[in-house]
Amino acid sequence: MTLGVRLSEGRFALLLVLPALLAIFAVVMLPLLYSLWLSFTDVNVLRTSGPALELFGVRVPLFRWVGLQNYVGIFDDPLYWSSLWRTLYFVGAFVLEATLVGLGMALILNERFAGRPLLRSLLLIPWSLSRVVVGLLWIGILDFEFGAFNGLLYNLHLVDGSIAFFKDGFSALNVLVSVYAWNQAPFAALLFLAGMQSISVDVYSAAEVDGAGYWQRFGYLTLPALRPILFLVTVLATVNAFLMLDLIYVLTMGGPAHDTTTVAWLGFQTAFTFFKFGPGTAILYTLTALCLLLTLVYYRLILARFEPAA
Amino acid sequence: MATIAPTAAANRDYRGGRYKTRSVGSGLVLYGLILALALWLIGPFVWLLVTSISYQRNLMARPLSFVPPEVTLDNYRMVLGLVRFHAEGQAARILPSMLNSLIVASAVTALNLIIGTTAGYAYARYRFPLKTLSLFALLFARMLPTVVLVPAFFLMLRALGLQNTLTGLVVIYCAFTLPFTVWIMKAYFETIPDELDKSALVDGCNRLQAYYRVVLPVSGPGLVAAGAFAFMLCWNEFIIAQVLNTKPDTTTLPPVIVAMNGQTNIDYSVIAASGFVGALPAVLLVLIFQKQMVQGLTAGSVKG
Predict the structure, then answer these.
(1) Cα–Cα distance between A193 and A148 in angstroms, integer?
(2) Would you call A210 exposed, middle or buried from its count of C-beta atoms within 10 A (0-12, 13-18, 19+)?
(3) Does the beta-carbon distance from A32 to B152 stay under 8 Å?
(4) B157: enclosing H helix or E strand
(5) pLDDT digits (tens, 9 = 90+) for A43-98
C-alpha cells in the first residue's frame, strides 16, 4: 500500500502544491512582509547590531521603528510627485502604444499570405531579447554619433547633423516608451492573435455574404470578441509599465536631470544608489499597493469570464 | 470549459479578407504592411549583428553605409578573449558570467519543472482546501513588483550568507518563475482529458503514479513551454543579479554587458558583439520551441 492511496484527495493535492507554495511563501511573501517592515524603519545597511529576528540561527536585522516617517518624507518630496506624474504619462503612453501596435500586428498576421509562419516566428524575436540587449541595440540605432537612424536621416538629407534623442528629457521619455513597446507589443499580438483565431470562420463568412466590409467586420465582430483579451493586455501592460526598470538603467539612468525618473526608478535609486532602504522601500511599496489593486481586477476578470466553476 | 487557446486547426485558414480573392489595391497595402512589420521586428536585431561585425569608424561615417564596407570578427575575438586589447579585463568576464547564467538558468528550469509542474497538476485536477486563495497568491506573486523585494533579499541573503552566490540567485529566480510555470502547466493539464488519469487508477496505479507514469509522459509540449519560458526569464534577468551579486565572478551575463556599456573607452561595436552573444541562446531557444511556447503562454495567460 503506497502513500497516494491512503491520503484523501484533498490532502494528496495539497501535498503536490506544497513545495511550490512554500518556495513562493519563503521567497516572495516573507520578503514582501519584511520589506513592509523595512519601510517603517531607519535601515542602516552597515549596522548589524540592534534588534533582530533570530530564526534557526539566522539573524535577520529589524532596525529601529520610525513609524510613518519614511512615508511622510517621500510624500513631502516634490520629486516623488513629479516622478508619479511622469510614471502615469509613461504608463498611459506605453499601454496605448503596446496595445495598438500589438493589435495591428495581430491583424496583419491574421491574414493569409506567403511567409506568414516566418513572420510569426520573427514576432518572437523582440520579445525574447533581454531588456539589456534591447537597450543596447536601440542605442546602436538612436545614438548621436553612430546611430543607424541618425545615419539614415543624414543619408536622406533630412537632418544636417544628428538628433540627440536622449538629450531632451521628454524625447528620452518617449524613446523609452517606444523601445519598451517594441519589446512588449509582440506578446500582446500573440494574445490578440490567439483570440482572433478562436472566432468562428462561419460568422465572418455570413457577415461577408451580408456585404460587410473589412472594417465593418473588424468593428462589429473582431473587436467585441476580443474584449476580454483587450482588457487582459491592458492590465498586463499597465503593471509592466509601472515596474519597468531595466531599460531605464541601460538607456537613461533616470536622466537627463530627473526627466525619465519614474516611481520605480526613484525607489530603486533611493535604495541602491543612496542605500536609503527605508525611504526606498516606502516608495516601492506605494507601487506594490497599485499592483495589488490591479491583480484584484485581473483575477476577478479571469475567474468571472473563463472559469466560472473555480 | 471555455477556451480561447488557438486549437481549432480549421481556423488556420481564415484570412480576414475576402474569401476568394483580394483586390490588387488591398493586396499592395497588405504586402507593404507585411514588409514594414518584418523590418520593424527584425531590423534592429539584424543591425545589432551588423554593428558587431563592423569597425566603429564605419558606424560613425556619414553618409552611413548600411551594408558594412568592411566585415570583421575582431569584436568577437575581443569578447571571447582571443586577442589582447585595452579593455580585456572587462571582456574576460563575459565567458565566466555566461557560464554562471547557464548554471543558474538550468538549475531554475529543472526546479521549476519538478515543483511547478506538480503543483500545476494538482490545480488542474483536484479540489483542495485553500485552492482559490493560493491561486490568488500565485497570481499576485507573478504581478508583484520584483524590485520591492530586492532590499529585503539583500538583507536576508546577507543574513544567510548567500549574497554573491549562485545559490542565492537560483532560490530567488525560482520564486519568480514558479508562478508562471504553475499557471502554464495548469492550463496544459486542463487540456488533457482526465479519463486518462481515471483509467490509470482503474488499472492499479495510485494517484501519484497516475501523474508521473501516465499524465507526465504525454505532457511534453507543456513542459517544453514552461521550461523554455523559465530559462528565458532567468537568462535575461538583470536587476536582481546586478544588485545582489556584485562580486565580479559571481554575477550573470546581463550585468557584465551593462558594465561594459558604461565604459566610455570600449567601442560600441565590441559591446554589440557581447550583446549578440548574450542574446543568441534565448532567441534560439524561443525560435526552436516557438510552437509550444506560444500555445503554452497564450493558454496560460488567457485562462489565467
Answers:
(1) 32
(2) exposed
(3) yes
(4) helix B146-160
(5) 877 766 667 777 776 777 777 788 888 898 889 889 999 999 999 999 999 999 99
Nearest residue in chain A measured CA to CA from B233? A130
How many residues does the structure list for chain B? 304
Residues of B with CB below 8 A from A295's CB?
136, 139-140, 143
pLDDT at A92: 93
> Which among B7, B14, B149 is the nearest to A35, CB-wise?
B149
Q: Are B48 and B277 in contact (CB under 8 A)?
A: no
* Residue A295, all three cell numbers: 491583480
Residue among A9, A16, A288, A299 with most chain B CBs within 10 A, to mutate? A16
Q: Going from the N-terminus, what domains does chain B have, and what CATH number goes with each?
A: 21-90 (no CATH), 92-267+279-302 (1.10.3720.10)
Instruction: For residue B287, give the chain A residue with the closest CA.
Output: A121
Report pLDDT digits (tens) over A276-290: 888 899 999 898 888
**Tens digit of each residue's pLDDT (9 = 90 or more) over A240-263:** 898 899 999 999 888 788 889 999
Nearest alpha carbon to residue A120 among B273, B33, B291, B80: B291
Sequence-ordered list of residues with C-beta below 8 angstroms from that of B11, at least 6 positions apart, any chain: A197, A198, A199, A200, A201
How many whole angstroms separate alpha carbon A281 and alpha carbon A277? 6
How many angstroms separate the CA atoms of A223 and A231, rounded?
12
Q: Measured between alpha carbons, how far is A81 from A85 in angstroms, rounded to an integer?
A: 6
- The DSSP bridge partners found for residue A54 are A59
Whether the Cβ atoms of residue B155 and residue A33 lie closer than 8 Å to each other: no
Q: A174 CA to chain B: closest CA distance, Å?
A: 17
> What residue type is A130 in one-letter code?
S
What distance in Å separates the CA atoms of residue A222 and residue A210, rounded to the nearest whole number? Answer: 16
Which chain B residues are Cβ-neighbours of A138 within 8 angstroms?
44
Domain ranges of chain A: 3-61, 71-306
According to the CATH classification, is domain A71-306 in 2.40.160.20? no
Whose CA is closest to A197, among A274, A275, A135, A111? A111
Q: For cell 514588409, what's the residue?
A: B35
d(CA B269, CA B47): 11
CB B304 within 8 A of CB B183: yes
How high is the ipTM of this complex?
Answer: 0.87
Direct distance between the N- and C-terminal alpha carbons of chain B, in angstroms, rounded to an integer: 13
Chain A residues closer than 8 Å to B232 by CB: 128
Contact B155 A45 (CB under 8 A): yes
Nearest to residue B256, comparing CAs of A173, A245, A132? A132
Name the β-bridge partners of A55: A58
